[in-house]
Specification:
- This protein is of the alpha/beta class and 799 residues long.
- The chain folds into four domains: 246 residues, Thiamin diphosphate (ThDP)-binding fold, Pyr/PP domains (Rossmann fold, 3-Layer(aba) Sandwich); 80 residues, no CATH class; 195 residues, Rossmann fold (3-Layer(aba) Sandwich), CATH 3.40.50.970; 133 residues, Rossmann fold, CATH 3.40.50.920.
- 42% of the residues lie in helices and 11% in strands.
- Helix 5 runs parallel beside helix 6, helix 13 runs antiparallel to helix 14 and helix 16 runs parallel beside helix 22.
């Protein structure tokens, strides 16, 4: 699209040119939606969701969106992305067809449905580009409302950069950047929306939210969605008082009124950018001409009166009428633009389709050549039939190519299939990364490239509380990393509920160490947005049990970001929390299975003590990865030997640690449970049972050198012990050891798991004893393994 601009003084010719450029953009966008829908319904694409009916306000928004700004929106914003020249019509169709070539489909390399937008934030080596010299869009997600938490962090970054206390190179110019959010009217019903609205008002950050209001959420109208059927009415309590800065500027404007939209957005951007006042622009009377998506027609749930109104007040038609009524252009001039636009969109669609298909057809030709060689050797009729079937497929997919190659191997009595097997293996090796790369960091600053630095001790090292080791290490890190910030519930004034940050706010200031309200999802989202803009945030969630409040944001946004952007966006957010056994239902959780099954894409580190935890933070800050560190709740007051190389020592993340060496049983555990197991091992030694006790240290990544299997080769017996539920992390660990790493081959007895019971732990010492593995449980479980192996030697009756 043409370069966007907003001018205060303009000649009539330039005014007309700008207006007609805007009309061309909205018409092209609508035509892409209409043709895109037809492509889906004709079977050439799987699903379509578009920005029809929302075109005009996005033109106005684009006029005041500046380089350095960030968008955090959703799947209706195609016109906006066209207007800022970060999306082409060809790319709309490339995404629709799921083209996996990142040069053709820059948004997600075909991984997301169409209309999920993103820009590139990092260079090919994973370093940040100069984001102040480009328009920026954080990568969209489908769960509407899910874009809100990260929006808070994108805005908070500007507030922090404006203080001048952080390194803003490549990220900010005096904190002048606006974080632009877009959301549909129905999605404002989500709790995430209200949580973030409140948080942004508390912090007074430059966040400008546009609510595209077409009065429906699929088939459910506003009377079911919002109090008073209007989000701007419902949020009036957030509106700032006249002449005061605290609170929101709330603007309501009709989505078909071109001049008023431009005026509204110019005013909104000015006060948001200059004064850091959060703004909500409620854009009403929008429509959805082709319905919510290709999954159905809106005529199913809208009556004739509503449909007639939508046809009359379609924002594109209203702009056309405004142009004609004001004599800016003639019918012929507009018709010429429209005809050119239709042809342009159709041509771009063909180019996108040909590019998508040509890649796959080339791969099919390669397979057919390999099959032809087999046919020449075998003259097999079944193989000839497969060859002909594959050749006749009009619109081949990569699934067709690989599936037909594998079908060939199922034919009996084929001679010399080795070349075909090689072709299949090579094809898998080349093709799988198109769909599976960048689940984790593949750049040089991956955690996998951080080498171990052992904690150093000398004659002056003495035993101190674990909390002091954490505190002293954070002290060193805050001094060492200029853009490191730590925030969360009670993290600031009192230094955390366990005193791991005691005195650090006073030393480094509120900008670097601060409190947040009780709002876990927006704490996590704030961290994501800050990380996207060059900060190294450590966001504290007080207890692991309360991480569930934020699990949607962690799972849908943080864990998928690198993957869904094909490595183009990074958010190295560190979540600091604490868990495992302590007291009661919601202060002794260890739901590690929930984490690993929800958060693939996030590193999950499970230290057993505070020296280990401190080292893990050091390792993470030497790398650039999202991670969760679960500190052991009951270890803050335990004494540990103090190292003197704070800020530097770190484990090799993913490497297991042998705490005891024995020849009888390989016992694998992590976190607080290890102290219980270690005490049981002392008792077992009295009965001549010696344990290989292994601390996994991290569960993602897991045992990168397969050291546990090396232990199994000696002991031939395996027990995994943790305090998650049955079938949780222990089952994951067992799968890794036995199946993935081949440990099954070295077992002489049944592998065992010892876990917590299926319900949450009751309050009190008895509750802990009867629900979590105790010293007695561990002793008896391990003794019985040896008893089964050698009953004549181990004769205790334990049950």
């Amino acid at each position: 699209m043409s370069e966007k601009f907003l001018t205060k003084s303009i000649t009539y010719d330039n005014f007309k040119k700008e207006v007609l450029n805007d009309y061309r953009t909205i018409f092209v966008s609508r035509e892409a939606s209409l043709i895109g829908r037809k492509e889906v319904l004709s079977g050439k694409a799987k699903f379509g969701i578009f920005g029809d009916g929302k075109e005009l306000p996005q033109i106005a928004m684009a006029k005041v969106f500046e380089k350095g700004d960030f968008r955090s929106g959703y799947y209706r914003d195609q016109t906006f992305m066209l207007a800022i020249n970060e999306l082409s019509i060809k790319e709309i169709f490339s995404a629709l067809y799921a083209n996996t070539d990142p040069n053709e489909e820059r948004m997600s390399g075909g991984r997301q449905m169409g209309s999920h937008f993103a820009t590139t934030s990092v260079n090919k080596d994973g370093s940040f580009r100069d984001l102040t010299k480009q328009y920026n869009s954080s990568s969209d997600i489908s769960p509407t409302g899910g874009q809100m938490p990260r929006l808070l962090g994108l805005a908070m970054a500007s507030k922090l950069y404006r203080t001048g206390k952080f390194n803003s190179k490549n990220h900010s110019i005096n904190g002048n950047e606006i974080a632009w959010g877009t959301i549909g009217n129905a999605s404002t019903s989500e709790g995430l929306f209200f949580e973030v609205i409140n948080a942004a008002g508390v912090h007074q950050v430059p966040m400008l939210i546009s609510v595209w209001d077409d009065e429906y959420g699929i088939s459910v109208d506003n009377s079911y969605q919002t109090t008073k059927s209007s989000i701007s009415e419902a949020l009036k309590g957030f509106k700032r008082d006249e002449g005061k800065l605290n609170g929101y500027e709330i603007i309501k404007v009709k989505g078909w009124d071109y001049p008023k939209l431009i005026s509204a957005y110019e005013h909104a951007a000015n006060i948001c950018r200059s004064k850091h006042i959060p703004v909500l622009v409620h854009v009403t009377e929008l429509t959805q001409p082709i319905g919510h998506s290709t999954s159905g027609s809106h005529e199913r749930y809208k009556d004739k009166k509503r449909l007639d109104w939508e046809r009359k007040y379609d924002c594109n038609l209203m702009m056309r009428k405004w142009i004609l009524d004001n004599g800016i252009a003639t019918v012929d001039e507009l018709s010429s633009i429209e005809n050119e636009s239709v042809k342009f969109v159709k041509d771009q669609k063909v180019l996108a389709w040909d590019s998508f298909q040509n890649q796959i057809k080339t791969e099919r030709i390669s397979l057919l050549k390999s099959m032809k060689m087999l046919i020449d050797d075998s003259k097999n009729n079944s193989l000839i039939n497969l060859y002909n079937e594959l050749s006749r497929i009009k619109v081949p997919t990569r699934k067709d190519v690989l599936s037909y190659s594998r079908k060939c191997l199922r034919i009996n009595n084929l001679l010399n299939v080795n070349p075909l097997i090689k072709w299949i293996n090579d094809y898998k090796l080349k093709t799988q990364p198109l769909f599976s790369s960048f689940l984790y960091n593949e750049y040089d600053h991956s955690i996998e490239n951080v080498q171990e630095v052992k904690p150093s001790f000398d004659e002056k090292s003495h035993m101190i509380d674990g909390r002091l080791i954490i505190k002293n290490n954070f002290d060193k890190l805050l001094n060492q990393y200029k853009n490191l910030i730590i925030f969360g519930e009670d993290s600031g004034k009192i230094g955390g509920v366990n005193q791991g940050l005691e005195g650090l706010q006073e030393k480094y200031g509120k900008e670097k160490v601060d409190d947040r309200g009780i709002r876990e999802a927006s704490i996590v989202g704030e961290g994501i947005g800050l990380a996207l803009r060059g900060f190294r945030p450590i966001a504290e969630i007080q207890y692991l049990d309360y991480l569930i409040f934020a699990i949607q944001t962690l799972s849908d946004d943080l864990a998928t970001l690198l993957y869904r952007s094909v490595g183009k966006q990074l958010a190295p957010l560190i979540i600091r929390t604490r868990g495992h056994r302590l007291e009661g239902i919601w202060h002794s959780g260890s739901p590690i299975g929930m984490l690993i099954n929800s958060l693939r894409g996030v590193r999950i580190l499970l230290p057993r003590n505070m020296v280990q935890a401190a080292g893990m933070y050091n390792a993470l800050l030497k790398s650039c990865e999202p991670a969760i560190v679960v500190e052991p709740l009951n270890a803050y007051r335990l004494k540990e030997k103090e190292p003197y190389n704070y800020g530097d020592f770190c484990p090799k993340v993913g490497k297991v640690d042998f705490l005891r060496t024995g020849e009888d049983i390989t016992v694998v555990s992590y976190g607080s449970t290890l102290r219980v197991v270690d005490k049981a091992c002392d008792l077992l030694e009295e009965h001549n049972i010696n344990i290989d006790l292994i601390d996994i240290q991290s569960i993602i990544p897991f045992d990168i050198d397969s050291d546990i299997v090396k232990s199994l080769k000696r002991t031939n017996k395996l027990v995994v012990i943790d305090e998650d539920y049955p079938g949780g992390a222990s089952s994951y660990i067992m799968n890794k050891i036995l199946e993935e790493n081949g440990g099954y081959n070295f077992l002489d007895s049944k592998p065992i798991t010892l876990t917590a019971v299926e319900h949450r732990p009751p309050y009190g010492s008895d509750g802990d004893y009867f629900t979590k593995p105790s010293i007695d449980d561990v002793f008896e479980t391990l003794y019985k393994v040896m008893q089964e192996y050698n009953p004549s030697k181990f004769k205790l009756r334990l049950s």
